[in-house]
Amino acid sequence: MAIGIGGAGGKLASLMSPNSVAVNVSETELQKTNAAQKVLAFAHSEKGQLKGAKKDPAIGRTAFNSIRAQLLELIQGNLVISSSGGGTGNGITSQLLEILATFDNIPDIRKTEFAIVLPYAPREAQEFIVNTLEFLRGPLSKALDSTNTGNLFLFSNQLKFEQRIAEEKYNQMIVESLKKFEAIPSKGDIYDLLEGHIDQEDFRAYRAKSFFNNFCYFDYDPERYFGEQLEQNANPLLLKPDTPIEALFLLEVPNNMDHTIFYNILDHFASINVAPSYSVVRNPNIQKPFVTVSMLYSRKPMDLVNDFNRISEQSTKIKIEKSLEQYVEFQKMEVNFKEEAKKVADEKGQSQNQDEILSVLKRLGKLK
Ligand SMILES: Nc1nc2c(ncn2[C@@H]2O[C@H](COP(=O)(O)OP(=O)(O)OP(=O)(O)O)[C@@H](O)[C@H]2O)c(=O)[nH]1
Ligand SMILES: [Mg+2]
After folding, report:
1. 2, 163, 165, 219 — which has fewest CB within 10 A?
2. Ligand 1 atom closest to Cα of residue 90
């Protein structure tokens, strides 16, 4: 189920699933969504009840208190969609992320995934950009650090503005894209399974990991190097990924084609020290092999802000200001990453290999 918060979130969530929930401070915006359930949050000012958050996340944060218990219950095991630019989506989602970060241990089945739509700075209001920078370096990084969220999808409005795509159409593109990723395990059930197997449980465990998820899909030419095709077919709706920590893919092979081409894909990932989960299926309805790939990666808050700044071409002032503030958190994340690596080594009964695991992470640029 999808829970959409704020204007963008509400519209996207109702396209995503028929039993979606839309949350908003604005009654008018709620009316505009086709969500099955609508939750009105309240925010007051000296002038009385507010009709929206007017791009001010502080108002979204206050409004969150009026729906706190209900929302914390609703998001469990579900997908939250919001934009980081405005006041409602940003403020309410920030509160959710900060609360999740304080929890002890959330079981996989109750982890919440987040799909965030980032603004495209050269065309959007300055408030949207400032709000986004705050969101990325604060609540989002905190929640990731706690490992209490599921996957995070960072969508960008860059393509929408650059290619002048109508909002409704762009929303459909985002939703169709997410649905392609979500279809991975069910395609393994529908079609003849030839190799590997990503079942619903494996898929859920993958989605319960607190990392950024970048996914894409394309007609795969087995005669050409996979890594190059992966780069060329990067999902234009998502922020660019870093080196993956984990990966997963579904390869659909047409009739009369040798399916062992999937070893090429494994070779590519092996070259970057990743051993992906995969399913290889026979799909009689296609003419060319088709692959859906997802990669999980980590990003330090400072790098995340810089990624956003790079495409946003924002003023040097914001860049420098934020980067300096980031430096402190940057150090903290490194330490945590080390702890995480040790924890994983212990869990896998490989405590004696801790040093080796840490050195792999170093080579991947995850540790200094
Ligand atoms: N892709 C997409 N982006 C949207 C849509 N609506 C708004 N946005 C973007 O989302 C940001 C603004 O956030 P909204 O979701 O409208 O704001 P809100 O969360 O409702 O907050 P307030 O209206 O300020 O209370 C900007 O970057 C907009 O470009 C939409 O339908 N699709
Ligand atoms: Mg709004």
Report:
1. 163
2. 19
**Domains 1-182 and 186-299 equal at CATH topology level:** no
C-beta 83 within 6 A of ligand 1: yes
Question: Residue 358: its pLDDT value, please?
Answer: 58
Closest residue by Cα to atom 25, ligand 1, is 53
Q: Flag whether pLDDT at 121 surpasses 50.
A: yes
In this prediction the pTM is 0.86
pLDDT tens digits for range 204-241: 999 999 999 999 999 999 999 999 999 999 999 999 99
Determine the distance separating the centroid of ligand 2 and the alpha carbon of 101, expressed in angstroms: 25
pLDDT of residue 328: 45
**Domain chopping of the chain, boundaries:** 1-182, 186-299, 335-368
The answer to whether domain 186-299 has CATH 3.90.1150.180 is no
pLDDT beyond 70 at 140: yes
Residue 338 pLDDT level (bands cut at 50, 70, 90)? low
The closest of 354, 195, 344, 213 to 277, measured between CA atoms, is 195
- pLDDT value at position 254? 98
**Residues 272, 94: Cα–Cα separation, whole Å:** 34
**What is the pLDDT averaged over residues 293-299?**
95
Report which bound ligand comes closest to the CA of 53.
Answer: 1
User: What distance in angstroms lies between residue 91's CA and the mean position of ligand 2's atoms?
Assistant: 11
Q: Is the beta carbon of 55 within 6 A of some atom in ligand 1?
A: yes
**C-alpha to C-alpha distance for 364 and 368, rounded to whole angstroms:** 10
Report the distance separating Cα 152 and Cα 214, nearest Å: 9
Superfamily for domain range 1-182: Tubulin/FtsZ, GTPase domain (3.40.50.1440)
Annotate 58-69 with b (16+ C-beta within 10 A) or e (fewer): ebbbbbbeebee
Q: How far is the CA of 96 from the centre of ligand 1 (A)?
A: 18
